[in-house]
Amino acid sequence: MKLLIDECLSPQLALRAQQEGHGESSHVVWLGKAGWKDWELKAFILQEDWTFVTVNSVDFRGPKVNPGSAGEYADIDLHAGLICFNGPDFIDRDMQIAMLDAALEMIEDQGGDLVNKVVEVTLADDGGIEIEIHALPSED
């Protein structure tokens, strides 16, 4: 799995992913894609088979209560996975790293396959990290 980190997240996440064995991981800015619109990133992400990591969850997976009903991945039948960070408007770098570590651990525990899945990584009110994985598109 190779991770592409959205520009609104720290580039340190790409370095962390590389340290954790995801050597092809990168950051949007490093690839010269800073400022690209979501739809432009979507085409690049799909073409290059990236698992995308973003805090713009709604923009990519649609509303949490009905994922896939809207957003950039609404019309996608096959993708390498999406990791959505959910929390306050600002998540500091250390917390972003903790969220990525938790997501990577959960993914590994689930067998490492994120094809057509979304990992929701949410900061709980008590400061903990909650993770859930669901299909996108849904398997209904």
UniProtKB/TrEMBL annotation:
Pfam families attached here? DUF5615
Entries under InterPro entries matching the protein: DUF5615
Which segments constitute the DUF5615 domain? 1-61
Q: Which domain of life is it from?
A: Bacteria
Task: Quote the protein name from its UniProt record.
Answer: DUF5615 domain-containing protein
